[in-house]
């Protein structure tokens, strides 16, 4: 049933455009401001830069130690992502497709965490990490974050695993495959789509995690990218080198923008998958 | 079932042995999978949660020996005007950000799902984009927008002939708490928009046809047909948002760190600064505030869960 386009339709379309502009323009603005000199920057907010100061990006890279904080971030995100995703996948398999004593209890204990807001555990968690000598250490937050948010991701993957036919394991067993082979050679490849979704979400959460690294990492040479940018913004009170800060902000957003361009479909589908389950 | 399991048992000639081996392997597999994860979960999640109850009964700066003070921290908490001020800010943010996000994302979703505009999928991609950005990036971006001397907001107002000089929106007690709201809405709306679009696209078009024949406006269609049909999802979204906004403080930590003079302090940030801030640390009192947050959040969740369950059964 097709309705006629009216003036009202057109005005609603403007609303969509306004919201789009409110998202895109600030980002675009940060980009072109990051290519100005500081004089131009304070002179006129709207004007485009006359000469493109790409050197601001180099300055940001060296001044804020973005190179080393990127490496720290790669280590922290990479290891937590691999360990966390593997633990999620193998436990989703065990808890959805295998029968054993105490399975209900394990599910119950895990689901309990959906009820815990987590904020009250911040202080004891810190003391615990301190007693374990895991503070001020990237490996420390890797250990901590490999085990975080289990219930949410388990639910996400177990839905996937339940939809696989039961005959998979049976035919594998007939062929003489061990349970290890069944999991690694049959189940994991079939769950790639679900695992990718979980991995994307873990990646975003880890790359964007600020509070954990901020609490636990003291040395500037251990900062992740988020903490490095926050500290860079804090010194702006004393030295007004804004164009460099803008360039630094652009650098931190580049990996996310690239990922979004390539994986936006997975990300948007995964978002709603998680929401329906959660 | 028996037809299927027989070949398994007969696969290797001494069938019993094979079975025993397979059983052993399965048990080993289950142990290798669950033990590390549960150990980590118990140590890093459950244990700290339990410990927070105990810590809230201590007077402890983290260095000297802890002193057990019973419920003193909670007594002080009730008398602490900063707690009440922070709680008021929590409620302001929860009461504004939640409806703003829901309303904006509902309207945008309705337009995309029902109007058949051009470039709908491009709009979807753009609207969702802020959700992949970190709190640090969003907060810095908005701090730039609000800045007095080079901020976009003041420059934009000047275009309309409103010159307020170098007014720094986050630096004045009158506006700081309100300036926290737009970044939160901006960062969250896209997520709920995508959820609502997907929910709306499952509504059969035939349900709208009678309304269209009777000449019902889009406003009536949205609020009388679409919204009631996706109500369960809207309720979950409201619950998520309310609890999330209530306990969130990262954005405020970065934007203002509670200032100026405490005008943007929220409970989580107050707790955070008592435990990790630059002043004297008081882990006991911080844990007591954490327990207060815990009680409020769990009570709210239970109440809303019950409330929504009852409402659902009426349909």
UniProtKB/TrEMBL annotation, chain A:
Q: Topologically, how does it sit relative to the membrane?
A: Multi-pass membrane protein
Report the residue ranges that make up the ABC transmembrane type-1 domain in this protein: 70-262
The protein, known as: Raffinose/stachyose/melibiose transport system permease protein/N-acetylglucosamine transport system permease protein
Q: Decide whether keyword Membrane is in the record.
A: yes
Q: Which family is this protein grouped under?
A: Belongs to the binding-protein-dependent transport system permease family.
Say if the entry is tagged with keyword NADP. Answer: no
Keywords annotated in UniProt: Cell membrane, Membrane, Transmembrane, Transmembrane helix, Transport
Q: Which InterPro entries match?
A: MetI-like, MetI-like_sf
Indicate where this protein resides in the cell: Cell membrane
List the Pfam families hit by this protein, alphabetically.
BPD_transp_1
Instruction: Please give the GO cellular component terms listed in this UniProt entry.
Output: plasma membrane
Membrane-traversing stretches: 12-32, 74-94, 106-128, 140-161, 182-207, 242-263
Q: Which GO terms describe its biological process?
A: transmembrane transport
UniProtKB/TrEMBL annotation, chain B:
Similarity comment: family membership: Belongs to the binding-protein-dependent transport system permease family.
Oxidoreductase recorded as keyword = no
**Bilayer topology term:** Multi-pass membrane protein
Q: Where are the transmembrane segments?
A: 28-47, 91-113, 125-145, 176-201, 222-246, 283-304
Keywords from the UniProt entry: Cell membrane, Membrane, Transmembrane, Transmembrane helix, Transport
Q: What is this protein called?
A: Raffinose/stachyose/melibiose transport system permease protein/N-acetylglucosamine transport system permease protein
Known InterPro entries for this protein?
ABC_transporter_permease, MetI-like, MetI-like_sf
- Which subcellular locations apply to this protein? Cell membrane
User: Which stretches make up the ABC transmembrane type-1 domain?
Assistant: 87-304
């Amino acid at each position: 049933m097709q309705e006629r386009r009216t003036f009202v339709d057109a005005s609603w379309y403007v609303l969509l455009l306004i919201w789009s502009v409110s998202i895109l323009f600030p980002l675009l603005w940060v980009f072109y401001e990051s290519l100005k000199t500081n004089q131009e920057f304070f002179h006129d907010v709207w004007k485009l830069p006359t000469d493109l100061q790409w050197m601001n990006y180099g300055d940001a890279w060296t001044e804020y130690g973005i190179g080393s904080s990127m490496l720290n971030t790669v280590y922290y995100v990479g290891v937590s992502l691999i360990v966390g995703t593997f633990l999620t996948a193998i436990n989703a398999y065990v808890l959805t497709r295998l029968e054993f004593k105490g399975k209900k209890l394990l599910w119950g204990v895990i689901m309990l965490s959906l009820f815990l807001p987590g904020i009250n555990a911040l202080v004891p968690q810190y003391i615990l990490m301190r007693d374990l000598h895991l503070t001020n250490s990237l490996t420390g937050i890797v250990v901590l974050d490999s085990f975080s948010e289990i219930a949410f991701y388990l639910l996400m993957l177990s839905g996937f695993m339940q939809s696989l036919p039961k005959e998979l394991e049976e035919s594998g067993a007939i062929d003489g495959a061990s349970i290890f082979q069944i999991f690694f050679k049959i189940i994991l490849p079939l769950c790639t789509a679900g695992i990718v979704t979980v991995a994307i979400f873990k990646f975003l959460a880890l790359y964007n995690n600020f509070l954990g690294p901020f609490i636990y990492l003291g040395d500037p040479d251990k900062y992740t990218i988020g903490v490095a940018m926050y500290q860079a913004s804090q010194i702006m009170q004393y030295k007004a080198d804004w164009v460099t800060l803008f360039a630094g902000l652009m650098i931190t957003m580049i990996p996310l923008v690239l990922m979004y361009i390539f994986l936006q479909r997975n990300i948007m589908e995964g978002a709603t998958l998680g929401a329906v389950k959660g | 079932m028996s037809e299927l399991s027989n070949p398994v048992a007969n696969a290797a000639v001494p069938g019993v042995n094979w079975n025993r081996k397979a059983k052993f392997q399965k048990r080993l597999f289950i142990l290798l999978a669950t033990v590390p994860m549960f150990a980590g979960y118990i140590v890093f999640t459950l244990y700290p949660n339990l410990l927070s109850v105990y810590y809230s009964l201590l007077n402890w700066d983290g260095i000297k020996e802890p002193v057990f003070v019973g419920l003193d921290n909670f007594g002080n908490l009730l008398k602490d005007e900063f707690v009440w001020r922070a709680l008021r800010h929590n409620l302001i943010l929860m009461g504004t950000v939640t409806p703003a996000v829901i309303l904006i994302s509902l309207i945008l979703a309705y337009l995309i799902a029902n109007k058949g505009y051009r470039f709908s999928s491009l709009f979807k991609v753009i609207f969702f984009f802020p959700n992949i950005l970190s709190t640090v990036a969003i907060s810095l971006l908005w701090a730039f927008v609000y800045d007095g001397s080079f901020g976009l907001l003041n420059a934009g107002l000047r275009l309309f002939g409103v010159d307020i000089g170098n007014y720094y929106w986050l630096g004045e007690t009158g506006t700081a708490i309100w300036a926290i709201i737009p970044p939160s809405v901006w960062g969250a709306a896209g997520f709920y928009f995508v959820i609502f679009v997907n929910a709306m696209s499952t509504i059969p078009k035939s349900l709208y046809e009678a309304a269209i024949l009777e000449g019902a406006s889009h406003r009536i269609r949205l609020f009388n047909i679409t919204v009631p049909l996706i109500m369960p999802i809207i309720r979950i979204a409201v619950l998520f948002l309310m609890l999330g906004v209530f306990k969130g403080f990262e954005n405020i930590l970065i934007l203002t760190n509670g200032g100026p003079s405490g005008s943007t302090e929220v409970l989580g940030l107050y707790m955070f600064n008592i435990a990790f801030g630059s002043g004297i640390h008081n882990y006991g009192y911080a844990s007591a505030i954490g327990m207060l947050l815990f009680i409020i959040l769990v009570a709210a969740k239970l109440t809303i869960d019950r409330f929504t369950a009852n409402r659902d059964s009426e349909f």
